[in-house]
Amino acid sequence: xxxxxxxxxxxxxxxxxxxxxxxxxxxxxxxxxxxxxxxxxxxxxxxxxxxxxxxxxxxxxxxxxxxxxxxxxxxxxxxxxxxxxxxxxxxxxxxxxxxxxxxxxxxxxxxxxxxxxxxxxxxxxxxxxxxxxxxxxxxxxxxxxxxxxxxxxxxxxxxxxxxxxxxxxxxxxxxxxxxxxxxxxxxxxxxxxxxxxxxxxxxxxxxxxxxxxxxxxxxxxxxxxxxxxxxxxxxxxxxxxxxxxxxxxxxxxxxxxxxxxxxxxxxxxxxxxxxxxxxxxxxxxxxxxxxxxxxxxxxxxxxxxxxxxxxxxxxxxxxxxxxxxxxxxxxxxxxxxxxxxxxxxxxxxxxxxxxxxxxxxxxxxxxxxxxxxxxxxxxxxxxxxxxxxxxxxxxxxxxxxxxxxxxxxxxxxxxxxxxxxxxxxxxxx
Length: 429
Hints:
FAD/NAD(P)-binding domain; 429 residues; alpha/beta; globular
């Protein structure tokens, strides 16, 4: 078994690649600061907040405006711990105040309506506009309510997806707390691509943890549109070890594909019949956030094609798209991916504003998943540009080893908390 040392942990975290974009600057030609240049960042999540901060770190003379309607950001990472009763929502709440006073970013708490690329301005919902030299769009995802019969936005109250944090997460938590012992929780993940591929299975694990403590006769059925899922062998082994037969998983060909919803009757229909649940966590298919769709940045897939070296849109020049909304080759849609893409994009934007050729940088992703409070697993990889596409570096990363002492799982749970604290400080601190 590979010993988990601090060095090994840092490799998993991809710390070397998280700062690779800045290292690129230090080894290249002297940077000519882009005085009085204006960059607007739309969206204040893992991608947007990080980009805004690093633009100012690289070039303090740059005028950076962050457009984000919410005054506080609620992270989706670690929200499953709220569902499991292990954290409170306040622990996942982050303010934009430090970005304002420490880094000099102009934070505008109004939603963006559209981007007018011909006149280079971001139009806000209050009718005002912000002009830019370059704009970075980090819109996240929206739910698709058009792919399942009889399912729409009004059904989220009774069948919360809890895939965008805060209110929906709290609603799902309340439903789990209120269900009777011996009840059934249905978790229904969509087909790929979607935000945080292992997230539904971590969710099943932590809901199972709560139920095992408080409602031990209950069951969790995962009705999955996919045929397989990330870290499947590790999840399956952990479920059996920790929860016995409480969790059952059905893939798409075994009745996991949701065809019809009966929100009032708290049931879903598959080709194998009707399944009732006391709690139904239906996670819809997703696409790029509305501002990207309304601004003509998506293709027929519903996602945003970009030059994967600079994340500049291939549909409209001067606009960069990062994070979950972007088509980023082999990189998954995750907070860590968005954070890495943000730094690469910040460097690229500074280079382009100074009429320099942007360089290529390596990126990384590490994803931790809790199965219990002191039991976590992970997957990691390093990525680089090959031709026009971001690809996984051969031999990089990997998944947590199977069949290890529980001390390894406990160590990864500690590392996971360290990862969360580190990345949120990197975004907002």
